[in-house]
Every structure is written in structure tokens, then in C-alpha cells.
Amino acid sequence: QPWATDASVVSGGIALQEPNTTVITAGRFDPKLFMNQRWGAGGTSGPSYSFPVSNGQYAVNLYFVDTYAPTCAKGARIFDVLVEAKVALSNLDIFDQATGSGNVPGCNRGLVMTVPATVTDGALNITFAKKTQYPRIDAIEILPAEKRALTPQAATSSPLESNAFPASAAIDGNLTTRWSSIFADGQWLAVDLGASYPIGRIVLTWEAAYAKVYRIETSADGTNWTSAYRTTTGVGGVETITLNGVLGRYVRLFCEKRGTAWGNSLWEMAIYPADGPVTPTTYTVGGTVSGLNGTVVLKNGAESLTVTANGSFSFPTKVAHGSAYSTTVITQPSGQTCSVANASSPSPSAKPAASVMAVDRSRAISVTLPLPVPTFSIASAARSRD
User: Of 275, 267, 357, which is closest to residue 317 (Cα–Cα)?
Assistant: First the structure.
């Protein structure tokens, strides 16, 4: 993508070129981005930026490196980053954060930090404020919020190479920390998104140890897995996998066969929602399912409702008059008994009716209706599964 000089959007600080600097990026980003810097000088504040943008939400990627010998030590250069006048990064220490192999900090290591921003006045403002030594920034990347990844709640994995490379390092948004498995085939990394989302794509940023044969699996409960993607020609580096709205709360990378003699290692596993950002909100189910609390996710697509209790439930679904529709019932685990009335409209001229489902066991039952209804999922919190 094209990059531009900051001359028209910055005030304060001093620009400096370092064309002969060698920056360690491990292939994760262009080292040329670290050959130009702006650092603060004079007073307590560093450079300030004001980018003219449309109002809305953004993800801001900040590129840093420390190449100055006197500040190549923990605590030697510390500063804050303010976005829209609020502290987004507090007491940032580039040397300490930019870790390499074995999580050992050091100079000349590229560091990228991502912070969210909400703009309401037509300008995205970023300020670098000195605490110890002067702030330094090498590049700023502003992306629309719809390109932001979901925020996983937790990660687990098969046995680790060592505790220095935990599963959580693959979901911390830091491209200088990584997960690494033992040196064997059949290793895995699982992520809990905290709620069910329609998944659009997954970006895997591999360390040198990658998987040649692997699959992506999704699950509603973290126990029963369904394969959503599989490849036998993995090449490592940065791989993007398109899933086209596959619904799941848990996502697992299962590495069937290694591409090297080492294990499997990821700098980051970024999971993106289908068709833009999805923000879960608390929702109280009404009608005949009164008293059950759940989570609602609004998207274009189908309508998905999850029930975890016995009994009969009526789902009055708004469908355009005259539209054909059908109902799909999925049980976890499979093979359970349930019946659905008014499950479809075979004729486009028929008026859509509510679907009524009878469930005979306390298991998760999912009902899905196709377009033009928006998608949302309701997870019962009223009763536990048996």
C-alpha cells in the first residue's frame, strides 16, 4: 500500500532518516518503514499529529523501533501515546516491548502496537508525550474499524515448546510474541471468542516453524468441532483464510503435518468477523422465551437462535410477505430428537409463519433461517446443560 510523508499532518518533533539501519522484523512488516523516524525534542511533549478523516471508528497501527544505543536499555526511553486526547499506550518502553526469540528485548527490533480510535470532529489526533527521554515514532497506519480483528477472551493449546511461548501470545495483538508447540505433528491452538460470531476470515502470521497441512475448526461449546477449512499446501509467512460467515464461538487451528523439523509457531492468529465489525450487546429474549438472557449479534445473513433448555419455544420471525423460507435444526451433540412446526414456506405466495420447536433434552439446539432476516444468536443463561 502507498505511504506518505507526515509533513502536512504533524507539528513538533524532528524528522530523521536512517537509511543504513538494519531492523529485525522477521518478515512481518516492511523494514523500510523503520528507516525514517520523528522524535520529540524540547519541552515535555513529542510530535503531535492531526489526520483529516471521516467521523467513525478506526484501528491505528503504530510502528516503533529503538536504534539509539543510549536508550537501548529497559526504562531508558519511556513515553505515553495519546489518541483523541486519551492515553492509549501508557509508559511505552520500545526496548522492553520489542522482544525477539525467547522473549528477549533488544535494539533494532520492529514493534507494532494497535490502538482503537473514535473520531467525532473530522480529525484523528495522536500525541506522543515524553516521560523519560524523547518519544520516537517511525510510521502510522490508520485502518477503518471494519478491518479490526475480534478480541479473543482466551487461548489454549497442545503442549508448549516452553512456557516462554504460551498460547496467549498468539492473540495478544503483539507481533513480537509467539506461540510455539512441541516438535511433533498433530499440535493445535484453540481460541475462545467469548460469544458466537459469523467469521469472515482468519489471518495466520507464522514464525519460521509453520504447518504444511492444517485445518481450521469451529465449535459452539469448545468440545465438538466442525472442520471449516483444510489445506495440504501451507507455505508459512502470512496466510489469509476466508470462511464466508461460518458461525462459531471457539476456533481451533489443528496442525496435522509440520512444514519444518521444528514444531508449529504463530506470531499472531487474527480472527475477523464477516462483513465488518460485530459488537455483542446484552439482550433479553421476549415472547414465549421470556426470562432467558443471552447475547445478540446483528449481521446481514441468516437468523440463528440457540436454546439450552427443555420444552417448546416459539420464534416469531419477521420475513417479507410472500418470501420463501426454510428452517434448519442443528443439535449438539448430533442425533437428538426435536420437531419443528411451520418450518418452511414452500410457495413464495404463502405468508411466513412462526417456527415452533419442541426440544426433549437440555442440549444446544440451533434454528437457522435464511435471508432476508438479520443474524443473531441467543445463548440461554437460565439453565445449565445436563
Answer: 357
| DSSP letters for 295-307 | EE--BSS-EEEEE
Distance CA 130, CA 148 (A): 28
CATH of domain 154-273: 2.60.120.260
Cell 492468529, residue?
269
Q: What CATH topology corresponds to 10-144?
A: Jelly Rolls (2.60.120)
Query: In this model, does residue 337 exceed pLDDT 90?
Result: no
Length of the chain counted residue by residue? 386
- Tens of pLDDT along 176-203? 899 999 999 999 999 999 888 889 889 9
φ, ψ (nearest 5 deg) of residue 289: -105, 35
Cα–Cα distance between 177 and 283 in angstroms, integer? 36
Give the position of cell 519541552: 43
> 109 forms bridges with which residues in the sheet?
24
pTM: predicted TM-score of the whole model, two decimal places = 0.46
β-strand pairing of 111-119 with 211-219: unpaired
ω into residue 2 within 30 of 0, thus cis?
Answer: no
